[in-house]
Amino acid sequence: MANRVSPSRPRAICAALRHGRKMLCRRIGEIVSGPDDSIGHGFAALVAAVEAAFRHEELIMETLGYVHLHEHREENAVVLSALHHVLPDVERGDHMLGRQVLSALVDVLDLHRLSGDLALTVAAHPSGVRVRGHAARATLHVATRRPSSR
After folding, report:
1. 89: which of 23, 98, 105, 124 lies 20 to 30 Å off by Cα?
2. Cα distance between residue 92 and residue 37, in whole Å
3. How far apart are CA 146 and CA 44, in angstroms?
4. Domain locations along the chain
5. pLDDT at position 140 over 70
6. Which of 25-29, 125-129, 140-144 has the lowest mean pLDDT?
């Protein structure tokens, strides 16, 4: 019997996604801190792992009926496009570029994590979300009031 994602459990869903991103960031850290040849050899597999993580996240957002999924997919596409753009250079031995891109990817994933968690929480409980702190309330306000630009 397969486990199904339950929209009534946003904390569990967000925790699972955070764990996946944390493992991805840990993997990036291992590659970046390793020797140069680990970047050349591990970059393509890492790009595939990012693709899989984004697909998983998008599937969950779609299941929850997240209204800004289209914009989120566009953001994912920009990140993936950048990774695919530099992939041939990294595989040919431009390890410095690989290290720079992977360091930037960790920062992007951190921002992505925050927006993804908020998106899933809002999508699962649009009117009943409780947040603490001024910054959290302001972010929630922006997320729930954001007009669709497309």
Report:
1. 23
2. 10
3. 35
4. 11-125+133-145
5. no
6. 140-144
Task: For residue 51, give the nearest of 61, 62, 59 by alpha carbon.
Answer: 59
pLDDT at 28 (0 to 100): 92
Structure letter (DSSP) for residue 67: T
Residue from 90, 120, 85 nearest 9 by CA = 120
Q: Would you identify the CATH topology of the domain 11-125+133-145?
A: Four Helix Bundle (Hemerythrin (Met), subunit A) (1.20.120)
pTM of the predicted model as reported, rounded to 2 decimal places: 0.70
**Nearest-angstrom CA–CA distance, 42 and 17:** 22
In angstroms, the CA 106 to CA 103 distance is 5
Q: Which two tokens stand for residue 126?
A: 């649009």
Q: Is residue 121 within 8 Å of 14, Cβ to Cβ?
A: yes
Q: Residue 87: what pLDDT?
A: 96
pLDDT at residue 56 tops 80:
yes
Are the beta carbons of 79 and 101 closer than 8 angstroms? no
d(CA 24, CA 136): 25
Those residues with Cβ within 8 angstroms of residue 146's Cβ, 6 or more apart along the chain or in another chain: 68
